[in-house]
Amino acid sequence: MKMLSLVIIPWNSGLAAYAFDQALALRAAGHEVIIGSPAGSAADKFAAASNFRHVNVPDHKHFGRFPSGFGRLFFFVRREGVDAIVAHTGLAQTVGWLFRLFSPRLALVRVKADARPPAIGPTFAGVNKVISASAHIEKMYLDAGLEPALSVLIRQAIEVPPYEPPPAPAPFRVGILGRLDPVKGHEVFLRAAALSLKAGPGAEFHIAGEDCNVKRADLERLAAELGIAEKVVFHGRLPDTLAFMRSCHAGVSASLGSEAVSRAALEWMAAGRPLVATSAGSLPEFTEPDLLVAPGDHAAMAGKLAGLAADPLRAEALGRAARERAARDFSREAFVKATAAIFSAAPAGI
User: Fold this and answer.
1) 20 and 30 belong to one structural domain
2) Are residues 335 and 304 located together in one domain of the fold?
3) Model pTM score
4) 185 & 318 share domain
5) Domain containing 284 — which CATH number?
6) What one-character DSSP code corresponds to residue 289?
7) In what order do the strands lie in the sheet with 232-236?
8) What span, in angstroms and rounded, lies between the C-alpha atoms of 23 and 7?
9) Cβ-count burial of 333 within 10 angstroms (0-12 exposed, 13-18 middle, 19+ buried)?
């Protein structure tokens, strides 16, 4: 099949990362994928770096300008003989639905890998399949009224690197990876660190991520107020996240919401480190039930961290089990196979 993958956003995100992995999987299965995205966007750069054909489209704020947006893209689809539209946003789904009004032979597949709650509107009348990147997203769709027959769950995949055991047991290093944003729960992480240090003073707490709606200086101030400044290390944005995770004995996702798909949680799994996480979004799909806490419950998080720090051998065993599950349930091979199965030689087969 020849398909147009519409990624009508300028930035990189979990949504974009899933779209890129999907395009690679479809190409590996023998399909031709054309990337439709704004000039200079993350998807534009991905297409160039990965040798995909590319067509420029206006971004989500300017797409409605006819004919430079809708009209030009419609004639491109007709001229190229595109078989299917793969829509990664609600706007892209609307575009695909409109195209199908004029070209009923087109297939339309909606892919969702972001946290925005879905709404089952009239454009779903033209959707052949809905691919959810997590069980959390799929449940949101089904709860909103999506026909179960339209729904397919294909979780994000990850490469599992060679295993490296944790560093020497002391000090026990706990890491959190992600942009400094209120939804990521760094304040909860620091309060949990302060409580867990009362149970065992040997641990260190490492924060990797760039400022984004929360300033590092504010978190440094909170650490000082909690009396744990000397036990907290701020790394900023790191180019090698795997090295950071391998330097830790355990990871934390303290998110208060969002997490429709958690790339960081997958990376902790693949690195072979246990993850203490909140139950926000899709996080329960990536970690042991015994390591889950309610969003915002720093006391419960402190108890989980103190328990791991007190028993490094158990922490290592949990990390190995997480890595094995990542290799089994989130492999590239499984992702390619499941993705390719949705698309067949003819649009009518979707």
Assistant:
1) yes
2) no
3) 0.90
4) yes
5) 3.40.50.2000
6) G
7) 232-236, 204-208, 173-177, 250-253, 275-278, 292-293
8) 11
9) exposed
Question: Does 164 fall in a domain?
Answer: no
Structural domain that includes position 275 = 173-329
Burial of 270 (0-12, 13-18, 19+ CB in 10 A): buried
208 and 81 within one domain: no
3-state helix, strand, coil split of the chain in percent (to 5) is: 45, 15, 35
The pLDDT confidence band at residue 65, using thresholds 50, 70 and 90, is: low
Instruction: Identify the band that residue 69 occupies on the pLDDT scale cut at 50, 70 and 90.
Output: low
Whole-angstrom Cα distance, residue 323 to residue 162? Answer: 10
Two tokens at 273? Answer: 């480190």
In-domain check, residue 232: yes
Both tokens of residue 326?
A: 């990542």
- Measured in whole angstroms, how far is the alpha carbon of residue 30 from the centre of its chain? 25
Contact criterion met (CB below 8 Å) for 233 and 173: no
Q: State whether residue 60 is helix, strand or coil.
A: coil
Q: Are residues 185 and 312 in the same domain?
A: yes
- The confidence score (pLDDT) of residue 81 equals 95
The answer on 182 and 100 residing in a single domain is no
Per-residue pLDDT tens over the stretch 133-168: 999 999 999 999 999 999 999 999 999 999 999 999
Structural domains of the chain, count: 2
E-strand ranges in the chain read 2-6, 32-37, 53-56, 84-87, 107-112, 129-132, 151-153, 173-177, 204-208, 232-236, 250-253, 275-278, 292-293
Whether 188 and 128 map to the same domain: the answer is no
